Amino acid sequence: MILLVGGMGMGMAAEASVDAEGVVFFEEKIRPVLVEYCYDCHSAGAKKVKGNLLLDTKAGWERGGDSGEASLVPGDAGASLLIRSLAHAEGADLQMPPKKKLPERVIADFVTWVEMGAPDPRTGVAGEVKRADKSWWSLQPLKAVTEVAGNVVEGSGVIDGLVEKGLREKGLAMNGAAGARELIRRMSYDVTGLPPTMEEVREFESAFAKDEERSVVRLVDRLLASPHYGERWGRHWLDVVRFGESRGFERNLIHDQLWLFRDYVIGSINEDKPFNQFMVEHLAGDVVGKDDPKVEIGTAFLTSGPYDDVGNQDALAQAVIRSDTLDDMVTATGSAFLGLTVNCARCHHHKFDPIPTEDYYRIKSAFEGVQHGTRTLATAEEKRRFEAVTKPLEGRKGELGKEKLALQTAIVERAKLLPKVEATRPVASAQLTEEKFEPVRAGMLRFTVLGTSATVTSGVNGRVDEFEVWSSGKDSRNVALAANGGKVEGAAGRVAEDFDGAYGVQRVNDGKYGVRWIIGSPAVLVVKFAKPELIERVTFSHDRLAGKDEPVPGLGPSVVEYELEVSEDEGKTWKRVADSLDRKALNEEMARARTLRLGSTKEELERLRELDGELAEVQSKLSAVAPLPVAWAGKFSQPDKPTVVFRGGDVSKPGEVVKPSSLAVLDAVTKGYELPVEAKEGERRLALAKWMVDDGNPLTARVLANRVWHYHFGIGLVDTPGDFGFLGSLPTHPELLDWLALRLQHHGWKLKGLHRDILLSRTYRQSAKWDEKASKVDSASRLLWRFPPRRLGAEEVRDTVLLVAGRLDVKMGGPGFRLYDYKNDNVSTYVPREVVGPETYRRAVYHQNARASVVDVLSEFDFPDTAFAAPKRANTTTPMQALVMMNHSFAMDMAKAFAERVKAEFGGDDGGDVEGQIRGAFAVCFQREPRDDEISAARELWQEHGAVALCRALLNTNELIYLE
């Protein structure tokens, strides 16, 4: 992209007289070499222009340098001074570059270029620059449009006037108006993400024929009033703010409360909340909306990005992770609101935009007090009522805890005087522990876990992969084994979702090692034998396959303290046969717990049991109180130290202290702010938010207006919607962009007014018809001589298929559905579902989008990776799209449902009206009547393969998923 000082539009495209193939050659082969090797000495931006030769414009090489000779002779490489200089030819006045000759292939490219006539689209008179400064276009104040052809300076007419101005300059003109059906389909999908019904199309066509203008206005107002509008445009915003419902990184745990933020976005857009208020709530909702959950949830923006929660114990690594965490917030804020890559200044001054490193850290200081985590979201009254119930219970819990601790302390002190039990045996082995005892007859055995390698109080989360009870005698066998009739009872400490009981107690006697029972509470395993047995030995293990006598890292705690009892009378009485008292204690804490068990009197044990019972009762009452709602919306605390610049971005190299403040580059055009180093945490975020949405800040309004235009036309006036800096694109219609930004402010930052301006314009309402002549000048329709057609997005495709099949559930809000099975054991796995049911037939915006999850139609049709912001979605065409639409179980199910629908609605009284069903299928799919040849082809397919095959074919047509 050519970027020129002194004019936004200069250099955006080659003049019509320049051969397109030659321009491509120049851009790919010549310009990069000039920028890298020549501009330092031969451009307007050079500190000293050598030989007075400028190579950053066509005019520069045509004029030549001090020699007075043109640098190039188009069509004659041999006569061109520049070619001789590049070749370091004998007798050449210059050798360029002076120290090292360019590769021969590069010189050959220059020869080819000159022989082509030296096509050069750089027609500007100023020099090409390599980075932006304060004069960069997007940093300038918004300029009002004072004159438009036809003297129209209000409403949609301005849009049309400015677009037509650009078209006239290229000898182009707008297409004629789109037809009624074309327009209602376009607007319905654009505003709501759903197609119109056949009835809506017919009604609109009729009204359109009578009064085109009035019918379009009524259509626009109806669509913007639809609750589906918020679902459609809310999804756009979720793309922009990198919204994902899992943490990412290694563990990638899911967030089950972030649907609250999604619903907040949809609700805010539906109610047409002013976007400047909406943005402030994203950064400081807890400050401006304290005790208002509907506002406070906005701060989930800060923490809904990827988050590394692995928990590295190294202090330097922790600092790096924290720095990366805050960088995510800076990056998301800079891109979403300002359209700047502020994060590029983290390690050094921004290489392309006028953002010094210090400014990065000034912005970062606003987020220093933000921590990831859940936060209570409730009104002040809800909190008061909750505390009125829980505070007395918490007080009683504290009193009981103090009494228990005092009693335990007294027991331990007295026990120090008692004879010590000799612990001669080693600590129980994680690989294999064996207990032998005198043969005893029993019908049941009870294994009580008193402590694990991770806790001294219970066996919760301890693990056993196999528990065996061996009969006495020569032919000893495992009578606990399920295959030998043994039955087990015990609590599971974890039920991992979708794991089908993988951690259940049944794993403990299935004869398989490595698959574990995670012990629950009470930490007791009861084994019932098929018949009374004479037993003499018990073996159990944490991981029999580990091959070492210690807990296995990553596999959880093993059992180290236990008691074994047997019963002959169906559990009425129990007799202890073995325990771990003569084993060495794992640690001091375990030794203390053992002392408590051994040193207590009968009365003390009874009191301890009573205290445990009372504590359990109080805890039960606390647990019965409905908890206040929480959400992954961040926690806030005052930073304990000032923000410093990390030299080179290295956290181990702290530099100067910086104050919370705005970007200095905008101080000349907007009222910036600077706070004291010790400013309150919430004050920092609020100051940043208010500065960003101030009417004087030219970036925020421009960026937002461009996003609105982008989603209406499929591409923005600036086609890099998240980057308005030097590496981003220049606006195709700079006057129009400023008018849209000012118009947004005129509407009080409400989007619906801006939508109306755009939707009612002739620019939007024109036909998408292709014109060969116009395409040669503007093949991508950037100048808007026609409406750019588009393919439906991922959500639109899935929602449309569901709607056509008559299966779409339009219920709004609430927890999302999943198109994957979620599996978690410290780290998370997301396995795509092959078969889905009606619970998943909601609009795709309500899918719980976890990072790194892949799901049928959505992923194949370019649903973005939620690890990153997606200001502009990819639009690919791949074989997998055809395969998933033809063969995935979802597509097959919907084809069957579609066939059932057309039979029920259009099949007549007996369901046998084939032509009626064909016509109905076309009406549902495409909102039009089929042509005669389509009816004939559809009937033939129906007769040969059935109704489902026809419906399946219709769901795979381009007409279904492409809009004009």
UniProtKB/TrEMBL annotation:
Residues 476-618 form the F5/8 type C domain. InterPro entries: Cyt_c_Planctomycete-type, DUF1549, DUF1553, FA58C. It holds the Pfam family PSCyt1. PANTHER family: CYCLOINULO-OLIGOSACCHARIDE FRUCTANOTRANSFERASE-RELATED, F-BOX DOMAIN-CONTAINING PROTEIN. This is DUF1553 domain-containing protein. It comes from Phragmitibacter flavus. The lineage of its organism: Bacteria, Pseudomonadati, Verrucomicrobiota, Verrucomicrobiia, Verrucomicrobiales.
